[in-house]
Design brief:
Elements (H helix, E strand, L loop, with lengths): L10 E6 L2 E6 L10 H15 L6 E6 L10 H5 L4 H20 L4 E5 L2 E3 L1 H8 L2 E5 L3 E3 L10 H8 L4 H10 L3 E2 H7 L4 E3 L4 H13 L3 H15 L3 H16 L2 H11 L10
Helix pairs in contact: 1-3, 3-4, 4-5, 9-10
């Protein structure tokens, strides 16, 4: 007899109005970043990266928890050092895939985002949190310091705020996360969907070429000395000026009309 059961996907993608919504769909495991979950997300982001119709991405989750971080049962079942190294490398690759994705990624956060789940939020370009959302890097409480989440966290908030989260494991609420710079927006839980979608569609309505140019340049110049950053940014703007959408946008502004983007 053929088993006709269909395996539930760990992550899904839904496209509308130039926005791709990527949803973690394993609430029974608190949307933990198992190896299978990370592969599913990476594959989806790879497909989005080359999709010219997508100009912004929302990263969401089903269930009461946004993401609980690594799957501790899976990690505890691994005794081989090389396999642990491969797991953490896979996680780092996923975070880098988000940062290097041409389109901006907005985390839509409800419930808890802990450890690598907090890292996931910090790796996104923007994050909208519901008022009930909480964030933590609690690895210190189980003898496993959140070293890889530390990388993204320390690039979003001040050193002392990051160290406090990492050394205590104490959760912070949405308003505190906003004041620290871990999230960009806070919305009432009932308004979270609308607030995130409005932000994403607003970005998607801009020139895709311009937004992608800006995202890439933003992260690249952060690692440069000041003078090098200005030289690099000047070269980016020079190249940007030669593009159709820059000429169209400036022309539309001068002529007091709405621009018609070709996203090139």
């Amino acid at each position: 007899m053929v088993d006709e059961r269909i395996e539930t996907p760990l992550a899904t993608r839904h496209d509308q109005d130039g926005v791709a919504t990527v949803t973690l769909t394993n609430p029974g495991r608190r949307n933990a970043l198992s190896c299978a979950m990370m592969k599913s997300l990476h594959d989806i982001f790879d497909a989005i990266a080359t999709d010219r119709d997508i100009r912004c991405v929302i990263l969401a989750a089903e269930g009461p928890v946004f993401c609980a971080g690594h799957d501790l049962k899976e990690m505890n079942g691994i005794s081989d050092c090389d396999k642990h190294a491969a797991l953490f490398s896979q996680c780092s690759d996923l975070m880098m895939r988000i940062v290097t994705l041409p389109q901006p990624v907005i985390a839509k956060v409800h419930g808890m985002a802990t450890a690598a789940g907090c890292q996931l939020v910090a790796s996104c370009d923007l994050a909208v949190a519901g008022t009930s959302a909480k964030f933590a890097t609690p690895g210190v409480n189980i003898g496993l310091f959140c070293s890889t989440p530390m990388v993204a966290l320390s690039r979003n908030i001040s050193r002392k705020h990051a160290m406090r989260m990492l050394l205590t494991g104490d959760p912070i609420n949405a308003e505190t996360a906003l004041s620290m710079g871990l999230v960009s927006d806070v919305a009432a839980d009932d308004d979270l969907d609308v607030a995130t979608t409005t932000l994403a569609r607003g970005i998607a309505a801009r020139s895709g070429m311009t937004v992608q140019t800006g995202k890439q340049a933003f992260y690249k110049q952060l690692e440069m000395p000041l003078s090098d950053a200005y030289a690099y940014a000047s070269s980016v703007m020079t190249g940007n000026m030669q593009k159709h959408d820059a000429r169209e946008g400036i022309g539309a502004f001068v002529e007091k009309r709405h621009p018609t983007w070709r996203h090139e």
